[in-house]
What we know:
This protein is an alpha+beta fold. It is built from 14 helices and 16 strands. The chain is globular. The structure holds 4-amino-1,4-dioxobutan-2-aminium adenosine-5'-monophosphate and magnesium ion.
Amino acid sequence: MKRTKIIDILKSNELNKEICAKGWVKTRRGNNYVTFIALNDGSTIHNLQIVVDMNRFDESLIRRATTGASMSVTGKLTPSQGSGQNVELAAESIEILGDCNPDEYPLQPKKHSLEFLREIAHLRFRTNLFGAITRIRHAMIFSIHDFFTSKGFVNIHTPIITASDAEGAGEMFQVTTLSMDNPPRTEDKKIDYSEDFFGKATNLTVSGQLEGELAAMAMSDIYTFGPTFRAENSNTSRHLAEFWMIEPEMAFYDLNDNMDLAEEFLKHLIRYALDNCMDDLKFLSQRLTDEEKNKKADERSMELIEKLRFVSDNEFVRLTYTEAIEILRDSKPNKKGQFKYPVTGYGSDLQSEHERYLVEKHFKKPVILTDYPKEIKAFYMKMNEDNKTVRAMDVLFPQIGEIIGGSQREENYDKLVARMKEMNIPKEDMWWYLDTRRFGSVPHSGFGLGFERLLLFVTGMGNIRDVIPFPRTPKNAEF
Ligand code: 4AD
Ligand code: MG
């Protein structure tokens, strides 16, 4: 018999119809007469209740339906007597597809710590929590493509192996086929990359932007959505060594157009989650509320769904870096020495504690900061007339800090070359990028959204390792 997914079974109102469900056992309870099995197949957070009349089945078969075991059940859909579901499945035949030894299976029907679940990432999809996160992750991927498609953007695959460091931060993973023990050397004893696979030194990309810009100089509006890699040794709850980034790049956009798009984009994604993932969001919200129940009322964070609505319904605040620095310099925590990195004035790089102060305490709204000092931003950003600041923008979110980084790009060949010289970026390596500024250059802008940072916000999870199936962080590449 053809299997029906549990999400469809639970929506069905065709009672007394014969159907087949397959999935994994969450729990089993009952007595000598009747057994209830909660079955889940990942299609929804809700389980299908299987009702087993023990007169009709061999007890030894039903005893194999332990937590984690997989099974196929056929039977009739009946109205449920119990609370919590409308329908249940009265079993007529049951097949255990795969046993699951309860003495060895690490997932028990109880609350496990997130740390423990990270150690069993190969099994954590089976928890309600990771099921919900995984479905929301998918919904966000879909919504991203949907948003850009509806605006006439073209998706571009940019290379994963690259010879250039787009962000100039030098935090790259090297890709090589040279022998680590005995690499070929040049006369001056340096490693001879001309003998490497690509004939030059290559790395995993930190961003698809530079190639994205090339495409935008013909297609007008493009976006990339790919994996990016950063070897920064920051063991924080917001950094991954391998993460996914969405990078739109738009010809004829200035910084204001760029901010408008970023704001519309984020709101669209959040609304999509509210419209399409409510069952999972309710579960996540309840989890957070339970976690915070011991906190004092004024220490509790805003309820998840309320917070998502708040962000999707309110305008983001826009201000310059210089204005933000003044607010921070004069802020209470700065005067009282409560910031780990005191804000002295123009030129300080903003730390996540400062970003969060602005968003969570001062404005109580998402904030877009613009016009940062050129010294703390990448070479490609357009210079302002003050010759000090660049047309950068960072979107800052509550609990997350920076969720988007972007800018208007320097489209003027001479100015761009001058900036590269100042920052010691060899012109010869970037000839193809510079060519766009020689052949029909236009004002253009773009930004990068960290996909896992978005998921942190939408799911309310506190650690970025829990919103990607198999996180890559320093000293951690299991699974
Ligand atoms: O601000 P970033 O470094 O910007 C760029 O890479 C530009 N090339 C984007 C562009 O203009 N096309 O990174 C963009 C976003 C950050 O705002 C953050 O959300 C995320 O990527 N991000 C990380 N997410 C997880 N782990 C890390 N180590 C991250 N580093 C950046
Ligand atoms: Mg950034």
